[in-house]
């Protein structure tokens, strides 16, 4: 009986693991970054809500790039170069490494 429970646990884990991994980055779910729209459109200081939302992208620079690119497709006023400066302005300069390229923009 214990073996059966253990086998079911492993099966459940194996079934859930792929969906968990794919849920890590959903570029079309950029609603949490709506507080960043003004700063992404024009070079201005981002709001505290924007900076707080960016915390979820720590260590996920590819995801941030994909999310900004998806958002740009829906909101034409987004300037990728401005958007990529926001983490540094928020004090998260290490979120995007120097030389990283996103949508044709290179981080200095």
Task: Give a quick summary of the entry.
By secondary structure, the chain is mainly α.
List keywords for this structure.
single chain, two-stranded antiparallel ribbon, 5 helices, 108 residues
State the oligomer: single chain
Overall radius of gyration? 18 Å
Total helical elements: 5
Secondary structure: number of strands: 2
Whole-Å distance between the termini? 59 Å
Mean pLDDT metric = 80
Q: Give the overall silhouette.
A: globular
Would you identify the regions where 5 or more consecutive residues have pLDDT less than 50? 1-23
Strand order across the biggest sheet?
A: 1-2
Relative helix content: 40-55%
Largest sheet composition = 2 strands, antiparallel
Q: What string gives the helices and strands in order?
A: HHHHHEE
Helix/strand class: mainly alpha
Strand content: under 5%
Report on the structure:
With 108 residues, this protein is mainly α. It is globular, with a radius of gyration of 18 Å. The longest helix has 21 residues, at 2-22. The chain contains 5 helices and 2 strands, in the order αααααββ. Mean pLDDT is 80; it is low at 1-23. The chain has helices at 2-22, 37-41, 48-54, 61-74, 80-89; strands at residues 101-102, 105-106. Strands 1-2 form a two-stranded antiparallel sheet.
């Amino acid at each position: 009986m214990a073996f059966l429970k253990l086998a079911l646990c492993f099966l459940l884990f194996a079934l859930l693991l792929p969906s968990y991994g794919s849920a890590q980055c959903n570029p079309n779910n950029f609603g949490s970054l709506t507080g960043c729209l003004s700063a992404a459109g024009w070079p201005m200081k981002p709001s505290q809500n924007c900076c707080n939302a960016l915390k979820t992208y720590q260590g996920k620079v590819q995801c941030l790039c994909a999310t900004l690119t998806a958002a740009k497709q829906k909101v034409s006023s987004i300037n990728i170069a401005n958007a990529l400066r926001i983490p540094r302005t928020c004090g998260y300069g290490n979120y995007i490494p120097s030389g990283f390229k996103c949508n044709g923009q290179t981080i200095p």
